[in-house]
Amino acid sequence: MRSPDLTQIALEVARGAAPILLAGYRSRPRATEKARSDLVTEYDLRSEAFIREELARLSPGVALVGEEQGGTAHGLTWYCDPLDGTMNFVHGLPFFCVSIGAMDDAGPLAGAVVAPALGLEWWGDREGGAHRNGEPCRVSDTAALRDALLATGFPPDRSREPENNLPTFSRVMREVRGVRRCGSAAIDCCLVADGTFDGYWERALHAWDLVAGCAIALAAGARLTSRSGGPVDLTVGHLALTNGRIHDELVALVRD
Fold it and tell me: What pTM value is reported for the model?
């Protein structure tokens, strides 16, 4: 299956799941903790059930790994986060999305991210480039880290260093124009893709958080490595994603 075909499937399904999330937005939905500060709602579950049904219909035989129901990767695999940014969603913040991406043995291949409360959609793939709300998008031209606006995040359990990312955040914040935290890794990656952010780093994420957004960012010209600057393993989730021009400077600050 060609990457543009995968992109269109991901976008169609993500658009279909988005109204499920909007139905619960700003309703203060009841949430349960899967782990410390790691929330799940009925809308996460309903969204993933819809995504699984639609992907099975539109791409039979392609493996699927989702945040809520798991799965096993095998060759070309879908990775979906049915509600990325659940903490934001529960508290009524608009930074949440549906994230659906495909990855093969060569890495992130195609993806779509739909953020319905923000009115934003991103999609992209290796062959067709990246788009934001239907318009082509590219990474920024920022050439120096001191001029950069970056994004990062923090794990649900922030009791341990350096895993909590706080020492790294403090080190980076002193060297850049600013650092933002959206609370959605998929949106952060897409904001690198469209040039809003110049770079993004984080640790201990999951592939379902990252595959779609990284596929879109790579299609927009981004550079993706581990935090040490080597090959990235998105199933481990330690990454640096930038416009390429500031990459080495950022890696020098975020590597352990």
Answer: 0.96
